[in-house]
Specification:
Length: 445
């Protein structure tokens, strides 16, 4: 416990004072004030680094004051009264030598910096204590050599390689003449269950270094820039019963993901009204209008979006948005996200001869930017979008913002991430920087 814990009406007990090594003749009052002869205790800011404890006596019968704390700076503990004068000064020892907090909750095993020294955990729910224990006691490797020494991480690496082989993610072939080998970085993470216990050790290979030196990045919009799938799902769920679809029973989220997510409205219209395409198109137009009304209040960027935006801008990379959404929707979402000046091109699937999953929209994006597919990668969140980018010959970073991992992996993305904060993405971008010989401030535009 520290002085920042004592604000307002909080009471300081003698145990806390003992930890701070305050002299024994300073005692705690029941009203929340720490007093010596009914003097007042307060923490004040000093400009020096040393810790000074000042004792100032109070006249008998003087009213005590509440304990106050200055959270920004906790250097001087002063016992004072308006009529008091300084009688002694006590200099506290260096902070690291002031004693050890009580053993509130200690993770099993030995760790370098036990969390019990800094955080009170005894009031956490059992599942949270289990999670804290695992976080503190399990070492996540940063290098392959470290991982191979632990049978659990080695098994996770074997599982990842078998999955890559099973899904035909990579093709084994002879090294072409004049081509260089590129590295691929392992990323190690742990997935936890709801009760805080370990679900699985996860090792995955993430590499974008094959596109070095990087020229451009292409983005889908729905589900990739913003978490818009819940809004689309809500609109479908509300409107489909009105036309008697599915017997008037609202569709499930699983049905939406399987049949509508990421698809062009022409395809959606044919699914809904196979014998009346024009009626299907009218329905999709009305649904998109409802989406736009809802998006005004509900649209939010995918976590970490602006971090990756800055990474791209710092390197002067070309960028474009490629989407199956109607132009009015696309421009609305880009504007609401503050990205109107960020993108140098916008490709609408409905304005191409073929929409996603055909590669044409992504090939058109490359054409607009005058970039090569060999030095460009794509961010996508849907099966149709990933298939389109892969067919266009570019590596794809898939986001699991709206679609389950097991569905997306069938489209063969280079790797999957939860959002733009995912360590897997930044490990790949760091490796890409090394291969490109670039970094912040390097321009390619």
């Amino acid at each position: 416990m520290s002085p920042s814990d004592h604000q307002g009406e909080n009471t300081i007990d003698q145990g806390d004072l003992g930890w701070l090594e305050i002299p024994e003749d300073v005692i705690c009052g029941s009203g929340g004030a720490c007093v010596k002869n009914k003097a007042t205790v307060s923490w004040q800011e000093t400009t020096e680094n040393d810790q000074v404890f000042q004792l100032l006596p109070a006249e008998i019968g003087a009213a005590t004051r509440q304990v106050t704390s200055n959270v920004s700076s906790l250097n001087v503990l002063e016992v004072s009264n308006t009529d008091a004068h300084v009688v002694s000064t006590y200099k506290l020892p260096p902070r690291q030598n002031r004693g050890v907090p009580p053993d509130m909750f200690s993770p099993q095993g030995k760790v370098k910096n036990p969390i019990a020294n800094y955080v009170l955990c005894k009031n956490l729910a059992p599942e949270c204590q289990t999670w804290v224990n695992n976080v503190e006691s399990i070492q996540i490797p940063t290098r392959v050599e470290e991982a191979l020494k632990d049978p659990k991480w080695a098994a996770a690496m074997d599982e990842e390689m078998m999955a890559l082989h099973k899904n035909d993610t990579w093709e084994v072939m002879e090294l072409l003449k004049g081509k260089k080998l590129v590295g691929c970085r392992w990323v190690f993470t742990i997935k936890y269950k709801v009760d805080g216990s370990i679900d699985m050790y996860k090792a995955s290979k993430s590499s974008l270094s094959g596109v070095a030196p990087l020229e451009a990045v292409l983005f889908d919009i729905d589900g990739t820039l913003c978490d818009s799938d819940p809004i689309h799902y809500y609109a479908f769920r509300e409107m489909l019963p009105e036309i008697g679809f599915n017997g008037g029973v609202p569709i499930t989220e699983e049905y939406y993901i399987e049949n509508f997510a990421g698809k062009h409205n022409d395809d959606v219209a044919r699914i809904l009204f196979p014998d009346d395409f024009e009626r299907g198109l009218k329905f999709t137009e009305d649904k998109e209008a409802m989406f736009r009304r809802l998006a005004v209040d509900k649209l939010k960027p995918v976590n970490g979006l602006y971090k990756v935006k800055k990474w791209i801008e710092d390197r002067g990379l070309k960028r474009a948005a490629v989407t199956n959404a109607p132009r009015v929707n696309a421009e609305l979402m880009i504007s609401m996200l503050g990205l109107s000046d960020f993108f140098q091109g916008l490709v609408i699937g409905n304005e191409c001869e073929h929409a996603k999953p055909h590669p044409e929209p992504y090939l058109k994006g490359l054409e607009i930017l005058k970039a090569s597919k060999e030095h460009t990668f794509v961010f996508e969140d849907s099966v149709s979008g990933i298939k389109a980018a892969v067919a266009a010959g570019m590596p794809v970073v898939g986001l699991t913002t709206g679609n389950p991992e097991h569905i997306l992996v069938e489209a063969k993305p280079t790797f999957l991430i939860k959002d733009y904060e995912d360590p897997k993405l930044w490990a790949a971008l760091e490796e890409l920087d090394k291969k490109s010989g670039t970094g912040s401030g390097t321009s390619r535009a």
